Amino acid sequence: MPIKSRIRTVPDYPKKGIMFRDITTLIQDPVGFRLVIDNFTQRYLEEKPGFDIIAGIEARGFIMGGALSYTLGKGFVPIRKKGKLPHDVVSQEYDLEYGTDIIEIHKDAFPEGARVLLVDDLLATGGTAMAAAALIEKIGGVVTEMAFIVNLPDVGGEARLKEKGYAIYSQTEFEGE
Amino acid sequence: MPIKSRIRTVPDYPKKGIMFRDITTLIQDPVGFRLVIDNFTQRYLEEKPGFDIIAGIEARGFIMGGALSYTLGKGFVPIRKKGKLPHDVVSQEYDLEYGTDIIEIHKDAFPEGARVLLVDDLLATGGTAMAAAALIEKIGGVVTEMAFIVNLPDVGGEARLKEKGYAIYSQTEFEGE
Question: From edge to edge, which strands make up the β-sheet containing B168-173?
């Protein structure tokens, strides 16, 4: 598994008991990075075409989202933390383990009815992805698929998002490890 | 000027008197985004080749840096805000208008002696770029060039960085506007 083997596991980050799956070792390797982007590109050219624009979630989602916008010839829309986008935005609050966070999208990020591919590095609880999809829908977009490098199905995000009707794609999984 | 005309100016953001140059309108347009990445790619294939890896500054630098890593066949290294990288890091503090900020890089981001192309969206005071270069040098890298979409030469960052010996490339400028 040339992708999975390039991902570093950092124990007890950001806190005791968490096995953090660190994609920086994958993407600092030119072969690893290319493999990730080529896999996504093949999928969205061949198996799941039919979208208009790519949205990436701050911050790691910007790395893959930027590369994919190039390979697929689409524009790129950043979904950012509160206060980081300069023009008119819509906001979405979502729950963290302790407290809440807010993400935002520009109101004019794309035209009404746009079909949007949502990109991030890792799917755990799915809270951020769900909030990002809500933002896309608030401004009239439709999420065609959510694309991740890593899925952690044990954490439950995949099941939760599928229950809401979202299509999920990931390149590798860590399960019960 | 197909790049400059796609950049939106937001007056009084993030505070009164600042004319914020917003690249989101440029990159959400597939033609604009492709133009930016093709221009950078041509430069780093033809005029300034000879580097080993690309470093992008959080967060907007990740968008262009990710795309360029793909087109140029290099790995990508994220330079992030304090506390965001999970493994061993080195840190660099730098001055903001009020107070200071800290950015970090993984100690094992690249091997000693690596030649690094540094990418961000906009050059103003040059404070962040200078701190990012310091990080790269602390772990044994050499900055071959700093690449930006937008340069604001009036703010003085370009002059400051060139005085320190850094090579600067930008695709467009806003001056006295």
Answer: B89-95, B100-106, B75-81, B53-57, B115-123, B142-151, B168-173
Report yes or no on B14 lying in a domain. no
In this predicted model, what pLDDT tens digit does every residue of B78-104 receive, in sequence order? 999 999 999 999 999 999 878 899 999
Cα nearest neighbour of B15 on chain A: A86
**Do residues A121 and A129 lie in contact, with contact meaning Cβ atoms separated by under 8 Å?**
no
Enter the tokens of residue B167. Answer: 């090579």
Say whether B33 and A59 touch across the interface (CB within 8 A). Answer: no
Residues in A closer than 8 angstroms to B74, CB to CB, are: 30, 33
Q: Is residue A137 part of a domain?
A: yes
Domain presence at residue B44: no
A22 near B CB under 8 A: yes
Q: What is the Cα–Cα distance from A154 to B43, expressed in whole angstroms?
A: 45
Q: How far is A141 from chain B (nearest CA, A)?
A: 14
* Domain region containing A114: 49-173
The interface residues of chain B toward chain A in range 85-144, judged by CB-CB distance below 8 A, are 85-87, 106, 109-110
Cis status, amide bond into A11, omega within 30 of 0: no
Residue A91 in any domain: the answer is yes
pTM beyond cutoff 0.90: yes
Residues of A in contact with B119 (CB under 8 A): none
Question: Which of the following is catalytic: B46, B97, B112, B175?
Answer: B97
Q: What CATH number has the domain bearing residue B120?
A: 3.40.50.2020
Q: List the one residue out of A158, A174, A155 whose CA is nearest residue A166.
A: A158
pLDDT under 50: residue ranges of chain B: none
Check CB contact of B19 with chain A, cutoff 8 Å: no
Residues linked to residue A111 through DSSP beta bridges, in sequence order: none
Do residues A18 and B51 lie in contact, with contact meaning Cβ atoms separated by under 8 Å?
Answer: no
Confidence of residue A96 (pLDDT cuts 50, 70, 90): confident
Tell me the nearest-neighbour CA distance from A172 into chain B, angstroms: 20
What is the count of structural domains for chain A?
1
